[in-house]
C-alpha cells in the first residue's frame, strides 16, 4: 500500500507571546491547503474552526496537548503567532500584496507591494509565566464586578456558537471571564462566559459605555499589549508616498491559502 512520498517538510519553532510555550510547526501540504478553500465561504465560526484545526495539525511537538486542551490553553493572541509562523514556514518570509492601492489620493495607482515578514515583526512577550492564568477584578458598580482575562480559543468558539457572527460586541465579550454580582437578597452570584454563555451575553449588553471603557482599558494594559504584529513600511514607486500599516496576516493567510490573491 502506498503510504506517501519521502518529502522533507519544513519546520520552525514559534515562541508564543502569552502562554510562555514554544511550539514547532510544519508547513501545510497541498491537500490541507485545498481542504481550506471550501471553508472560507461560510460564516465566521467554520472559518475559526478551520483555522484552529490547521494550526493544531501543524504542531510537531511529540508532547502536544489534545485538541481540546490546545483550545483551552492557547490564547487568541498566541494563535496569531502560530498563524504567522505557519504562513512563513509554508510560503516563506517574502510577502507580496498584489494590487495594493496607493493611499495618496492624487496618485491612487495600484502596485505590487513586496516586503519581508521578519523585517516588520514586532513581538511583545509576557515573560513571567502563563498570562492566561492571570485575572483582574474590576468594580463596575457597588454590587457588580467584572473579572478581566485573556480569551482562549475555547472562549472564542463558545461565544461564536452562542451569538450572531456579525455581533459587534464579540471582541468585548472575550475580554471578560465572568461577572460577580449580588441579587436583591444580597446573595453573591457569578455569571461566566463558558458556563452560562447566553446569559453572559445578555449581561454584557446591559452594561453602560463607561463600563466598556473600564474593561477595555484594563484589558489593554494587562493583556492586549502582549502579542505579535507585522508593521509594513513601503514607498509608492509612482509618487514616493510612504505607506505604513499593520498587516492583518490572519486575513492575508486565508486569502493566500484560498488562492484569492
Ligand atoms: Zn502613489
Provide an overview of this structure:
The chain has 261 residues and is α+β, with helices and mostly antiparallel strands. The protein has 2 domains: 11-118 and 248-257; 131-224, no CATH class. It is 39% helix and 25% strand. The chain contains 10 helices and 11 strands. It has helices spanning 30-40, 44-58, 67-73, 76-91, 117-120, 153-162, 170-173, 197-205, 209-224, 249-257; strands at residues 11-15, 22-26, 94-101, 110-116, 121-124, 136-141, 144-148, 176-182, 188-192, 227-235, 242-246. It has a 4-stranded antiparallel β-sheet. The chain is globular, with a radius of gyration of 21 Å. The two termini are 37 Å apart. The chain binds zinc ion (ZN). Zinc ion (ZN) binds next to loops.
Please report which band the strand proportion falls in: under 5%, 5-15%, 15-25%, 25-35%, 35-45% or over 45%: 25-35%
Helix content: 25-40%
What's the gyration radius in Å?
Answer: 21 Å
**Structural class of the secondary elements?**
alpha+beta
**Count of DSSP E strands?**
11
Instruction: Report the average pLDDT across residues.
Output: 90
Major sheet: 4 strands, antiparallel
Overall 3D form: globular
SSE ordering? EEHHHHEEHEEEHHEEHHEEH
Essential attributes:
single chain; 261 residues; alpha+beta; 2 domains; four-stranded antiparallel sheet; three-stranded antiparallel sheet; globular; binds zinc ion
Q: In short, what is this structure?
A:
It contains ten helices and eleven strands. The protein is α+β, with helices and mostly antiparallel strands and 261 residues long. It folds into two domains: 11-118 and 248-257; 131-224, no CATH class.
Amino acid at each position: 500500500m502506498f503510504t506517501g512520498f519521502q518529502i522533507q517538510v519544513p519546520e520552525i519553532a514559534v515562541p508564543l507571546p502569552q502562554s510562555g510555550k514554544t511550539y514547532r510547526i510544519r508547513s501545510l501540504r497541498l491537500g490541507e491547503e485545498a481542504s481550506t478553500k471550501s471553508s472560507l465561504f461560510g460564516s465566521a465560526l467554520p472559518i475559526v474552526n478551520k483555522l484552529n484545526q490547521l494550526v493544531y495539525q501543524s504542531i510537531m511537538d511529540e508532547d502536544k496537548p489534545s485538541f481540546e486542551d490546545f483550545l483551552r490553553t492557547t490564547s487568541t493572541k498566541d494563535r496569531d503567532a502560530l498563524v504567522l509562523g505557519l504562513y512563513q514556514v509554508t510560503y516563506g518570509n517574502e510577502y507580496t500584496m498584489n494590487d495594493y492601492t496607493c493611499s495618496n489620493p492624487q496618485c491612487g495607482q495600484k502596485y505590487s507591494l513586496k516586503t519581508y515578514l521578519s523585517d516588520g515583526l514586532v513581538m511583545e512577550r509576557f515573560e513571567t509565566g502563563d498570562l492566561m492564568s492571570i485575572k483582574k477584578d474590576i468594580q463596575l458598580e457597588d454590587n457588580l464586578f467584572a473579572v478581566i482575562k485573556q480569551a482562549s480559543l475555547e472562549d472564542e468558539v463558545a461565544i461564536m456558537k452562542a451569538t450572531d457572527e456579525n455581533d459587534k460586541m464579540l471582541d468585548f465579550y472575550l475580554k471578560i471571564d465572568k461577572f460577580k454580582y449580588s441579587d436583591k437578597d444580597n446573595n453573591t452570584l457569578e455569571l461566566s462566559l463558558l458556563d452560562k454563555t447566553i446569559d453572559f451575553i445578555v449581561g454584557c449588553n446591559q452594561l453602560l459605555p463607561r463600563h466598556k471603557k473600564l474593561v477595555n482599558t484594563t484589558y489593554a494594559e494587562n493583556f492586549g499589549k502582549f502579542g505579535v504584529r507585522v508593521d509594513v513600511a513601503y514607498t509608492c514607486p509612482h509618487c514616493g508616498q510612504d505607506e505604513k500599516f499593520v498587516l492583518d496576516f490572519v486575513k492575508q493567510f486565508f486569502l493566500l491559502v484560498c488562492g484569492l490573491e
